[in-house]
């Protein structure tokens, strides 16, 4: 599944900014694929936890997206190029929109700079081995924690 399906689904995932709705849809698609592989009907009422035990896998599509995103950003931050200046917002121009309602849109670097400052992030990107090791730990596979059997499942990244 990972070589055929994921290569198509995750095409261009290096520069996605994921909203909560997108994350939910990606996780449900991953579970749908595992259920199709095991030929489990929705009528059977098999829990996702049991499906993952059958296929001996974890939910890790979001981990893969974050890892690809971090690798791509690290590659861009190590280079001195036009794309780096565009991502940093140093290029003048564009249409200025005033009075836009709602929350500001998330940018590509927002996910990475929440935990660390941008200067610290840029320094880490210069050492490729440290960069990959740091993001291997920080963006681990999605681990599910259940509060109660009848309550909603809570997702966290550990």
Short description:
Helix content is 51%, strand content 6%. It is mainly alpha-helical and 158 residues long.
Q: What is the topology?
A:
Layout: H1 5-9, H2 20-38, H3 48-55, H4 61-78, H5 82-88, H6 110-113, H7 118-126, H8 128-138, E1 142-146, E2 153-157
Antiparallel strand pairs: 1-2
Helix pairs in contact: 2-3, 4-7, 4-8
Can you walk me through this structure?
The chain is mostly helical. It has a domain at about 60-90 and about 105-140. The protein is about 50% helix and about 5% strand. The protein contains eight helices and two strands. It has helices at about 5-10, 20-40, 50-55, 60-80, 80-90, 110-115, 120-125, 130-140; strands at about 140-145, 155. The chain has a two-stranded antiparallel sheet with strand order 1-2. A hairpin with a 6-residue loop joins strand 1 and strand 2 (about 155). Helix 2 (about 20-40) packs across helix 3. The protein is globular, with a radius of gyration of 19 Å. It starts with a helix and ends with a strand. The model is unreliable at about 140-158 (pLDDT under 50).
């Amino acid at each position: 599944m990972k070589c055929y399906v994921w290569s198509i689904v995750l095409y261009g995932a290096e520069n996605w900014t994921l909203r909560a709705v997108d994350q939910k849809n990606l996780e449900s698609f991953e579970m749908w694929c595992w259920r199709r592989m095991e030929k489990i009907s929705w009528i059977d009422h098999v829990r996702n936890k049991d499906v993952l035990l059958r296929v001996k896998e974890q939910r890790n599509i979001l981990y893969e997206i974050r890892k690809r995103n971090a690798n791509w950003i690290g590659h861009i931050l190590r280079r001195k190029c036009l794309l780096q200046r565009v991502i940093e917002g140093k290029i003048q121009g564009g249409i200025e929109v005033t009075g836009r309602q709602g929350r500001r849109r998330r940018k590509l670097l927002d996910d990475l700079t929440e935990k660390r400052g941008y200067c610290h992030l840029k320094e880490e990107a210069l050492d490729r081995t440290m960069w990959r090791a740091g993001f291997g730990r920080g963006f681990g596979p999605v681990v599910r924690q259940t509060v109660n059997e009848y309550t909603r499942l809570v997702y966290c990244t550990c």
